[in-house]
Amino acid sequence: MRLLVVGRLSGQLAAAVKMAMAHGAKVQHVERTDQATEQLRRGQGADLLMVDYNLDISGLIAANDAERIFVPVVACGVDNDADKAAAAIRAGAKEFIPLPPEADLIAAVLSAVADDERPMISADPSMQAVVKLADQVARSEASILITGESGVGKEVMARYLHVNSKRSDRPFISVNCAAIPDNLLESELFGHEKGAFTGAVARRIGKFEEADGGTLLLDEISEMDARLQAKLLRAIQERVIDRVGGTKPVPVNIRIIATSNRDLSKAVAEGVFREDLLYRLNVVNLRLPSLRERPGDVAVLADHFVKKYAAANGVPTRPLSADARRALAAHRWPGNVRELENAMHRAVLLAVGPEIDAEAIRLPDGQPLSGVVAQADSGPAARAAQTADAVSRAYVGQTVAQMEKTLILDTLTHCLGNRTHAANILGISIRTLRNKLNEYADEGTAIMAPQNGVAANYGASAA
Questions:
Q1: SS3 for 32?
Q2: Percentage of the chain modeled with pLDDT above 90
Q3: 35, 240, 262, 267: which could join 249 in a potential S-S bond, CB 3.0 to 4.6 Å?
């Protein structure tokens, strides 16, 4: 992960930088916001900006928006001024980090943005078969399409392919097509020339050129606008790109990996995805099974996450108890590996005693995993009936709109505020989700802020 720190390197901010580097982040530093925009414009990209909240965060985000540069911002500050923190969130910062920093908060923010340090871990035969196929094609130059449900580890697989490719010593650049608005995505991918549009005060290098010689991951490509699909097709076919406002093609040497949690063949039939682009991307398809299809991976992944988050939070590594392992095996994991990771992170923080027991493994709303606290004399059928009855009673008397709102907000909570993941689970576009959240915020409903677990009534800025 690439982190750009903006502000004077005081003792506390320097401590945060060292902590981020200890978690694997590659850190660069500038003192002024205009220097940050200039560095991003030149193609010295970043996955995250950490900005002193005494600086003009609103102006920085506006300058980046004018240049069609999309990089999330987190604010930080030493004196923990609540008004400044709230102002930073309203200005567009996704999170506030108080200084001196806490190790678990730094780790959580970094892990929410990047998957750089996530190794390929598998023990189940169904997943090992996919890894074997990945090993066969990793050193080729073929474009690869990775498919599977949200949270199964598609980006982890993409990084695995890059590390085992002939391009492993060159850049790996990832672009989330669902998270970037259409009017910004073209410049994000292809860059632009000075004067290409209002606000383009200098040439900007896009992700294609940043990835030159390496690998470009187009995450959630199904969300890409049809017009950009045509431009992407030309770039893949001809190995040249056109910057926005440019007059001559720019050659690029990259390998394309794309991911999708949707059926692209169905999207082609519906006319929302180009068939010729699908053929270009889908030279090899790696379908990652859901976690419930690979039960042999649950225990080994859980052990890995326990060690990872114990180290990140500076606490002893406790083993999982036998009851905890049974509870993990019994859960359906609708959020797949991402849900398991979040659950084990919470368990590391909540566990007491020499082992992590079943009571420490909880859902985002604090409830235990299904079956953990069931009555001893109640069988599976009885528990299922009780659950169905509780669900049906909860919805009786509600309008369709109320049920929809409950479903959307509960799913957002389940995803710890991550809009992209929630939209994927709900089966709607990120734009539709944002519109719904803006509508609820206008009604005065508290909306969970992105990338943290704190509900805040931030209105449209939080969506």
A1: coil
A2: 37
A3: 240
